[in-house]
Amino acid sequence: MRIALVHELLTMKGGAERVLRVLAAMFPDAPIYTLLYDEKKLGNWFPKERMAQLPTTYRNNHHLHLSRFPTAVETWNFSEFDFVISSSSAFVHGIITNSQPKHLCYVHSPARYLWDRTHDILERSHTGLFGSLKHAYASRLFHRLRTWDSEVADRPDKLLAASKEVQKRIEKYWRRESSVVYPPIDDFWFNRPTTYLPTISSYFLIVSSLVPYKRIELAIEACNQLQFPLKIAGSGSHRTYLEKIAGQTVEFLGFQTDEKLRELYTHATATLFPGEEDFGLVPLESMACGTPVIAYKSGGALETIINGQTGIFFEEPTSESLAETLQTFTPLSFDPKTCCEQAEQFSRKRFEEKITQTIDAFFVTG
Question: What distance in Å separates the CA atoms of residue 22 and residue 324, rounded to the nearest whole number?
Answer without folding.
Answer: 39
